[in-house]
Amino acid sequence: MHILFMDIDKLPFRFKKGYRATFFEDYAVIGDVHLGFEEEMNSRGYNVWEKTDEILRSILSLKVKKLIMLGDLRANYIAIRPKEGGHLIKFFSKLSDSFDEIIITKGNHDGGLEKIVSRFNNIQLISEFIHKNVGFMHGHALPSMKLIKEADILCISHLHPFVLIRDSNGVYYRKDCFFFLRISLPKKTYPASKVSDCIIVPKFNPYIGGSEEFEPKGILKYAKIESKMTTDLEIF
């Protein structure tokens, strides 16, 4: 595998300096939000203030009317308790009032969200979304054969990628990043696959952890990764 300097301008996405989102046609596309992560952090001895309103403001600041959320809206794996349910209803109510269309590709943390989002006519919770030549999904599970046949580009989150950057004083610090892959899927298993590129979107929540080491998951475990490139959020 080698580093590839991809011509990002040829991708059907727009990137903005400092943004954790990417933009595809009329949509903003964001990665993992992990609402309720504060409870887990506080249980480990950290003192973390409620961040939901801050995250919500960041989403609304994208200034679009259509939104794709690539899963893991929740931080917890367990069943939704009444307190969390109330927070989620409030969160989605504000999103629903602010966007014409919201598509959520269900992540591995998102059990129980169906009952919450069913209250809102303009919010869909689905396993994957195909639009034009791009397939959107969380990234923890395998895509459908329909997506593999129709999409040239796969857009996922799930991996929380970041890079370590060393400053002039020799101090390392972490920067969340986009990850760009050129991939091919095994023809024996996926004979009709059109997928050739994969974009991994950074986590939208800046307070949760990430992974410096690239660990293929989901469909990427079966892909031949021919080349890769990372960019931190300040590149664009």
Automatic annotation (TrEMBL):
Pfam families: Metallophos
Domain Calcineurin-like phosphoesterase: 28-223
MF-aspect GO terms: hydrolase activity
PANTHER family: BLR1149 PROTEIN
Protein name: Metallophosphoesterase
Species: Candidatus Parvarchaeum acidophilus ARMAN-5
